[in-house]
Amino acid sequence: MDACCVVPQHLIILGGGSAAFAAAIRATELGARVTMINDGLPIGGTCVNVGCVPSKNLIRAAEAFHRAAHPNFPGIETRARLSDFRKIIEQKRELVLSLRKGKYIDVIKNYDNVRIVEGRGKLVDANTVEVNGETLHGDRILIATGASPFVPDIPGLSSVDYLTNQTAFELEELPASLIVLGGRYIALETAQMFARFGSKVTILQRSPRILPTELPDVTDELTEHLTAEGLQVVTGVKLERVEAAGKGIRVTARVKGELETFEAEKILVATGRRPNTADMGLEQVGVQLNEKGFVVVDDTLQTTVPGIYAAGDVLGENMFVYAAAYEGKLAAENAINGEGKKRDYTAMPWVIFTDPQVAGVGMDERQARENGIDAEATLLPLSEVPRALAARDSRGFIKLIRDRQTDRLVGARIVAAEGSELLMEVALAIKFGITVEQIKDMFHPYLTLSEGVKLAAITFAKDVHQLSCCAT
User: Fold this and answer.
1) Which domains are delineated in the chain?
2) Bridging pattern class, strands 397-403 and 375-381
3) Is this model's pTM higher than 0.85 or not?
């Protein structure tokens, strides 16, 4: 058949976030045409609108305010004043609008074979989607509808004006006090941000520790620094009820078995994420969902229905924007080319943007041993890193985990002011099998935080106190 007569494959994408955009771009590069159906959040999805971009922008603003009031160097006296909280929110909105336009709307305009439809799509069968009364037929379908804040069923919660990450970043007046329900990354990042702006913050976490999937060395370190800044961190909490109390909110809970009450002007619900899979016809066409409603896929990102794929937060696994983009691209390649490429999350890095930051990649020592690895961990306090001493900020540590048999790194956990910037060296080492001995032999500039990775590697075999500056 002549090339002019070949009809391009049609990929229908449900969703308009990072996974959807990565899939759309890759599909068009492979010669397909794309219809992207978006509903709920504006184009760009969670990250640019209500997630990564606004939160990290406001976290940096709060950090600037905090550091202005705490220079940490003797002989320097400073003052900081929050003169207009609304202006901080306004500049955040400007950034969101700019990135939404520049990185999503304007980008997709360059692809003639991409059509965007605003509306809620519903699957009719494995090749058909209805939206706004229109019936669309596609060769393949990709579900990339993301996730939303999960709001637990707590008596009285629905009767109060609670916040989520989708509304907290839109407040134009700083609350005098705030109760945060949850103790994972969204809860902790947002809690510290508001506390640094001046809110009195109480964190209520159900499990015995914040960040319950991490080992105590990480969670205890972060808890210490959060409480030192004045946040109240309460763990082992069983929530009983929420109710209005004057112009504020009261939470009644059992803490380690004892009944206690907490009051604040506002309450933020940060207790996890739920998938955007309701009323889409997924189960009717045979797409399997797990017990929490997230889409089940195989290693090629295909669902239980051949020809229907899924990617991004709707999977409920690695809820990071870079993971969503990776999955969207991979799903598009498998959908269009049928190559059956398997997903690979080796050396998947993650960061919690508290201060100090918490960053990780690979396995901790417990996970490594559970996977049959002869694991060994070494932990280097930041007080042993010259850069941290010079900056007068030695909070945290660098922990490396290696396989004794191969000398290869299998994981890392870092608690440090800019811990995220130390992560990629370890991720690359894990990905490409670089050994601890090889890291030790690499040049690391003196008075950089990255030197801490080398020092940590050295301490597998040597006592750091026996090393001179720039020692190997």
Assistant:
1) 3-148+274-337 (3.50.50.60), 157-271 (3.50.50.60), 349-465 (3.30.390.30)
2) antiparallel
3) yes
